[in-house]
Specification:
Order of helices and strands: HHHHH
Number of helices: 5
Distance between the termini: 62 Å
Number of strands: 0
Length: 168
């Protein structure tokens, strides 16, 4: 007796949405015109200054400057990563991630750790320690405090965004 072969196919909405939306990346030009976008670009530029000013010295001889380098490079890389996410609107393609909470945690931790690093940087700068690197370390300390204030501003904006999401 002949057998009947029936094939049933199904597709999930996740797969259909993923294949349909991954063909082009969006580009949000307006993000850089917002205050959080401008603060993020400032964090990247001045954060780069912080770690290049220290990296050009014999910072590895002094553990305090190693800590400042770690914080500056770590948050510089993450800030570039988040700028790319916001510029390409990748956050709209991954709705499972609570982006307002992630932004708040990122900016809050960056503010706290950069504040600690800036204080450590400023308190470690003395002419007696190494007069040859004094100017670079002093400049990195100044810019570390400026970057800290930028992260404080972005923490505030992230909190406002997070709070408006939780109240809905």
């Amino acid at each position: 007796r002949p057998r009947s072969h029936t094939v049933t196919t199904t597709s999930s909405s996740f797969t259909a949405n993923l294949s349909g939306s991954s063909s082009t990346l969006a580009y949000d030009r307006e993000f850089l015109r917002t205050l959080p976008g401008l603060l993020m670009v400032t964090e990247i530029v001045l954060g780069l200054l912080v770690w290049t000013l220290i990296a050009g010295t014999e910072y590895f001889l002094y553990p305090a400057f190693g800590w400042v380098m770690f914080v500056a490079v770590f948050y510089w890389v993450l800030t570039v990563f988040f700028l790319i996410i916001y510029m390409t609107m990748t956050y709209t393609r991954i709705p499972q991630v609570p982006w307002t909470t992630v932004g708040l945690c990122f900016n809050g931790s960056a503010f706290i750790l950069y504040l600690i690093a800036a204080i450590v940087d400023a308190s470690s700068v003395t002419k007696e320690l190494d007069s040859h690197n004094y100017n670079s370390w002093a400049a990195s300390s100044f810019f570390a405090f400026v970057v800290t204030s930028c992260y404080a501003g972005n923490t505030y904006f992230s909190f406002i965004s997070w709070r408006s999401r939780t109240l809905q």
